[in-house]
Write a structure and sequence with these properties.
binds zinc ion, 9 helices, single chain, mainly alpha, 6% strand
Length: 252
């Protein structure tokens, strides 16, 4: 029997992971030191600060329609999130802002620069879902807790907090997790998980032109490998149907 057991263990492991890739597990975050209502209040404060600093308080008609389009995508993801937060999009029209980030309490900032690189709504949903997971998975709460542990701040004093503190990367493990769990979220909302691969490959393709002497960043290629593994593991190969991105023009 011991011989059989020795043979059996690797066989079981092989069956559990046929692709040879370890299924990611949720990274641990510092335990939430704030209640949902305190996080929502802090988020509202930071969102007002962001809108003011970035000139979004009185948006143009074009920007208002862009925000509404992206909000519609966030609303279609909302029924499938764990935390029931007021998921709110803030659209920043700066063309050099090729990214997004998450503020406490459900606020998602999306830059025009990353939208300009997209051809499907599914890619926009993928980026919004990634940012939602930063909040839904407790990473943003963890960052608040880390800041509170290091510095004696008041959660209710807006002068002690800056929105930029939430724009920094959460590190490879957490960023990868937001793609991994975000893919599950977009699939539930009937978007294609392949959109993660296509938007990441867009960054790799741009890199070959903009920085031809540099290899593709490992942070990006690892995320491409991860989504490919996840698609195979979840049998999502056929979920390739996408809808074109429908960025509005103000005179439509
Ligand atoms: Zn992220």
């Amino acid at each position: 029997m011991p011989r059989l057991a020795l043979v059996g263990v690797p066989l079981l492991l092989a069956l559990a992971a046929p692709l040879g890739a370890q299924e990611p597990t949720a990274p641990g975050n510092t335990a939430a030191a704030v209640s949902d209502s305190a996080e929502i209040a802090l988020g509202a404060m930071l969102a007002r600060q962001f809108d003011r600093d970035r000139g979004l308080v009185n948006p143009t008609e074009q920007n208002r329609r862009m925000q509404a389009y992206l909000q519609g995508i966030a609303d279609s993801l909302a029924p499938y999130t764990r935390r029931k937060l007021p998921w709110t999009i803030h659209y920043d029209s700066h063309p050099g802002f090729r990214s997004g980030f998450a503020l406490p309490g459900g606020h998602i900032v999306i830059g025009a620069g990353i939208l300009a690189l997209m051809n499907t709504e599914d890619q926009a949903a993928a980026v919004i879902a990634h940012e939602i997971i930063h909040i839904d998975g407790g990473q943003v709460q963890g960052r608040i807790a880390d800041i509170l542990a290091k510095e004696h701040r008041s959660l209710t004093d807006s002068t002690q907090w800056r929105w930029g503190e939430f724009g920094r990367s959460y590190g490879a493990a957490r960023e990868n997790w937001c793609d991994y769990d975000g893919a599950k979220l977009v699939v539930r909302a009937h978007y294609s998980p392949h959109a993660y691969e296509s938007i990441l490959k867009t960054f790799v393709a741009l890199g070959t032109v903009w920085t031809p002497d540099k290899p593709a960043p490992k942070a990006i290629t690892d995320r491409i490998t991860q989504i490919r593994d996840e698609i195979a593991r979840e049998h999502w190969e056929k979920l390739t149907k996408t809808r074109p991105i429908a960025l509005p023009y103000s005179n439509d």
